[in-house]
Amino acid sequence: MVFAIKVEVSDPAAETLAFDAQKTMYGGKHIAEGDTIFVFASENQGGQGLSLSGVVTAANAIAKKRGIVRQTPRVSITIRRTARAKRPLGRSELKPFSDWHDRRPETELNFKFYRQATNKIVGISDEAAAFLRGFF
User: Integer distance in angstroms from the first to the last C-alpha of the chain?
Assistant: First the structure.
């Protein structure tokens, strides 16, 4: 599977990045070592959108807290950077793609990342992954 994460990226030039206890949605809880991941630097924390691609080198599920009925699964991951984005792709580029049923990769990414402003790990389709590879 291929995944994407929207998160605060403190050093996009780093070879290895670690993100602790990240919220997961849309299949993101299935992320595992060896998976491909695209990293979006969250605009809410000063980022510019699509930043880099990488390979997951570690993925550890966070245990749910006792006594809380409804919890979003969380995962801590470590990524080895494989490439840096060569052109921009963020909220402003994806905003026009809001017909949630048009099956476009741009719309999928807009829906999964920007319909809710929270940072998260998401599973993405093969079409969305192929679209994102064009930015590297």
Answer: 19
* C-alpha separations of 104 from 4, 23, 96, 99, 118 in Å: 16, 24, 12, 9, 22
Q: Which helix (H) or strand (E) holds 133?
A: helix 126-133
User: All domains of the chain, ordered by start, with CATH?
Assistant: 2-133 (3.10.590)
Outline where 9-94 has alpha helix (H).
91-94
DSSP H or E stretch at residue 32: none
Q: Cα dihedral angle (132, 81, 10, 94), rounded to 10 degrees? A: 0
Q: What is the pLDDT of residues 50-78, one digit of tens each?
A: 999 999 999 999 988 888 888 889 999 99
Tell me which amino acid residue 80 is: R
Considering the entire predicted model, what is its pTM? 0.94
CA distance 31 to 11: 22
DSSP state of 108: H
